[in-house]
Specification:
10 helices; globular; binds 1,3-dihydroxyacetonephosphate; 8 strands; TIM Barrel; alpha/beta
């Protein structure tokens, strides 16, 4: 049985004051969660959040990393740098990076490799746009995105986490139905099984307008092993409620 993971993606939100209040609120209400919990914070706040989360059960995550190891790459943050701040997980290939920063499947695969080489778990995000879904291309798109990471990372693939985030469901209030989500998760599971004998331990998260009201039903699906939560991860009560649904 895979233990579930609820990961918050703060995106470009927060401030020193807001982060402190959010994390203190979460820690006060968390108790002993039945699932793994992590928060992926903006890089500039890693040191602050590392200090606030020290000794807690909430893991620290980042939202992106460089595909390069080190050197003249102005503005970039390396896997080794993230590691120095206690980062355990990092998002790679989020649709907002693919869409607004033109990240390719090949770059996403390189980033996953950099994270793995530093002992950081990459949370590999895949997902189709509305136009791709309407054209019947959902399976083809998510399989292509995941295949790039599988081919570049070989036997390490059992160390990744996958997040299925249909682009049309992100920040829109539209959630994939439980059937739509489970169907894509099963496709991804089959692809992982073909690549690794340890595929059954890989967590596949759902993301896209997950909230306190819909989390339990999504998390009850056989291949949905957790959530990657955006907006609802910024509100203490909502995030705690989603975590409780993953029990
Ligand atoms: P929302 O939960 O705000 O739709 O965001 C989902 C997401 O992109 C998490 O990475």
């Amino acid at each position: 049985m895979r233990k579930k993971l609820i990961a918050g993606n703060w995106k470009m939100n927060g401030s020193l004051a807001a982060n402190e209040s959010l994390l203190k609120g979460l820690l006060a209400g968390l108790g002993s969660p039945a699932c793994h919990v992590s928060v992926c914070v903006p890089s500039v706040y890693l040191a602050q959040c590392q200090a606030l989360l020290a000794g807690s059960t909430i893991n620290l995550g980042a939202q992106d990393l460089s595909q390069h190891e080190a050197g003249a790459f102005t503005g970039e943050v390396s896997a080794a740098m993230l590691r120095e701040f206690g980062v355990r997980q990092v998002l790679v290939g989020h649709s907002e990076r693919r869409q607004y920063h033109f990240e390719t499947d090949a770059q996403v695969a390189l980033k996953a490799g950099r994270a793995l080489a530093c002992g950081i778990t990459p949370i590999v995000c895949v997902g189709e746009t509305l136009a791709e879904r309407e054209a019947g291309k959902t399976d083809e798109v998510v399989k292509r995105q995941l295949a790039a990471v599988i081919h570049a990372n070989g036997h390490c693939i059992s160390e990744i986490v996958v997040a299925y985030e249909p682009v049309w469901a992100i920040g829109t209030g539209k959630t994939a139905s439980t059937e739509q989500a489970q169907q894509v998760h099963a496709v991804l599971r089959a692809q992982l099984r073909a690549a690794s004998e340890h595929a059954d331990r890989i967590q596949i998260l759902y993301g896209g307008s997950m909230n306190a009201a819909n989390a339990a039903q999504l998390l009850a699906q056989p291949d949905i092993d957790g959530g990657l939560v955006g907006g609802a991860a910024l509100k203490v009560a909502d995030f705690l409620s989603i975590i409780a649904s993953a029990g």
